[in-house]
User: What shape does this take?
Amino acid sequence: MLQPTWLVDTLAVVMIAISTYCVARLVAARVWGRALHRDINVAHVAMGTAMAGALVAGFRTLPDGAWDLVFGALVLWFGASAARLVVRPAPAAVDTHHLSHNLTHMVMAGAMLYMFMETSSSSVAAATPAAAMSLMGGARGSAASLGGLTLVLVFILFASAVWHFDGLTRYTTARRQLAPVASSVPAHGTGALMATAVAAPAGATTAQDVTMTDAAQAEQAHWLAPRLEMGCHIAMCITMGYMLVLLL
Amino acid sequence: MATTSQAMGAMGMTRRPRSALAENWSVPDRRRMLQLTLATAWLLDAVLQFQPYMFTRAFGNRMIAGMAVGNPSGLAHQINWAARTIAHHPAASNTAFGLVQLCIAFGIAWRPTLKLALAGSVVWALAVWWIGEGLGGVLARGPSPLTGAPGAVVLYALLAVLLWPRDSQRRREPAPFIAARPLGAAPARAAWLVLWASLAYWALEGVNRSSEGLHNMITAMAGGQPHWLSSLDTSVARVVAHRGLEFSIALAVVFALIAAGTFFSVTAARVTIVVAVALSVIIWVVGQNFGDVFSGSGTDPNSAPLLILLAAAFWPSPGRAVVAPERAPSFEPVGI
Assistant: This one.
């Protein structure tokens, strides 16, 4: 029993678009000298490409086994980052990730690793992971050897998607122009700092450094806005959850 | 590394990027957390709806039509009509079903559309309960609470009402639990009582109290499940074999105690809620096999997770106001 092709093709297109956008984010941040969650964006590129390849039979990405290494490395990276935060909590700062952030992405990378291991070890004779998933998804009875784990991963991914969707309103912008105010920047919290971090030149230390044209600055902030990164994360979680459901 | 905000602060300027929505954003309180959990359940439902099996005629001809069995003829006729209609247009109808659930999930998660989504979820849930679940089998012979009676989807509707984002104006003191906030404690407790007392009643009704009733039901569930789950089912079925009546009575007693639980003292109510959660977990694993999601044809995780969510909404919170959500600092770290 095969999945409806329009659905998997749509998901694959979305994943490719997200991967492309995240590559553009990385390049743009480097060119414009902006702060960015590089590990997140690299992970999104890898996950998006891998999922597109798994969804569409004709889309060849990396050779068998290569994705296992990539996602194994990402699991280790985010796991180590999380452990580092547990041992030595970092002060709130612009470029500081939080424990939940690291753990969520560790789970996502782990889910990808799990999916690739399941499809590669499947007894289903399939030419590609996509074909394997298609066949497994239609099989009666669970195709995943660890069905309980699959279900837990699905719950975590969907909870993360919903949680971040709720948080999206925190980063809705009313307008992009600058407005003079009497007070200075709030001294506490990192959310707004993070929200503006992507718009901040990495080397800016004085007022003069930020006197670039408002329009250019706003344009850069627009393309590198945190809410877009969150949107990518939400789409990734849903697509990954769907692929895991097909393994159930 | 300086940020734009810091640099502009030195200039007496700051960016004004936040909309009214962002300015009014607050850290999710307990009720909001439960609403988000409800949204997660809807999201899972939506994604399960997009499984390959649901796009086939079997979804209408077997799954929906199967709900007509045992129901009164009038209801069965309506279910069969819906089943035929769905089977004639399986892709279109299933896509529509999945998208509706997706909209409900993200409507609840998106604060500006919360009320609309909750209201929509009530309408959708009742429609699905009627046509898609045959009223959860409550009019059929011997609906079993172990297999999901009175129907998972009606619990979505109940949760939408109890988690409605308003606070009853008739009381001045803090609500004793989250579910009491929109309507007050008495109606919420009444809903809890009716629900769990109904489960107690159905546990003793018809075939459920026969000596082999439980055994046959659990054995039937084992088919098509992963090996570890079917082995568990088989083991439990062996334990309850020939002891259906005893287990049904015990189950009914526990359900009845849970039904009365929210009327007890705070400590007793908390114990009752814990028991309700534990029993729901057991039912979810053994009686419902995780909503049959491992079979490729499960449309939802069944009623047990929703009973757990409901229990969380009735968790007593004495001495702490749960009326006003805590206003967040304007700038809160984000977890992405």
Summary: The longest helix of chain A spans residues 5-32. The longest strand of chain A covers residues 178-180. Chain A has nine helices and one strand.
